[in-house]
Specification:
- This protein is mostly helical and 194 residues long.
- It has one domain.
- 96% of the residues lie in helices and 0% in strands.
- It has two helices and no strands.
């Protein structure tokens, strides 16, 4: 309020009120000095207030910049945290997938080895069985051959015996026929004599 009064007085003084007495002049000079002092103070106050206003504006601007930077940094950190999380998930998935593939590979390898061992055992058992069957078949063949040779020998002996008997029978028949013929001849001769 004092500042406004001082401004009005200074304005009136500038307008040039010349009809003043010496005391009035003196008063007006004192007032002008006071006004000058109050103007200086007012100017200082205005400068201080302007500086404070400028500082407030700059602080507000800097605060907003810092807040923007902090917000962007927090947003970037959130993005980075999200990216890190996604990377961790992807890496974890890749590690688990590799472990699963390794496990499947080991299982297949073990299954293949078990199959190989089992097939080897089955093949060896099969070969052993085949060898046993072949030996049995060979024994049977030997026995059959033996039986066949014995049977053939028996048949041959019977044939030879039959041939001998037949020949002996022929010899006997021839002998009997000859003796019968001779005896019939002798009987006829005897009949003739009588």
């Amino acid at each position: 309020m004092d500042a406004q009064l001082a401004l009005e007085l200074s304005m009136n003084a500038k307008k040039g009120d010349t009809g003043l007495s010496g005391q009035d002049c003196w008063r007006s000079s004192i007032q002008q000095k006071a006004l000058a002092k109050s103007q200086v103070q007012l100017m200082k106050q205005i400068a201080v207030m302007a500086a404070m206003k400028i500082q407030a504006i700059i602080r507000g601007f800097l605060g907003r910049c810092c807040a923007t930077l902090l917000f962007e940094r927090s947003r970037d950190e959130a993005k980075c945290a999200g990216i890190r999380r996604v990377q961790a998930l992807c890496r974890g998935h890749a590690v688990r997938f590799r472990a699963f593939c390794l496990k499947v590979k080991q299982q297949r390898k073990a299954a293949t080895q078990i199959q190989r061992i089992a097939r080897g055992m089955l093949d060896r058992d099969y070969v052993t069985l085949l060898i046993a069957l072949m030996r049995e078949k060979m024994r049977e063949n030997k026995a059959a051959s033996k039986l066949q040779s014995i049977h053939r020998q028996m048949v041959a002996r019977r044939y030879v015996e039959a041939k001998r008997q037949e020949q002996a029978a022929r010899v006997l028949q021839v002998g009997l026929q000859g003796s019968a013929y001779r005896s019939s001849r002798t009987k006829k001769k005897r009949h003739r004599k009588y």
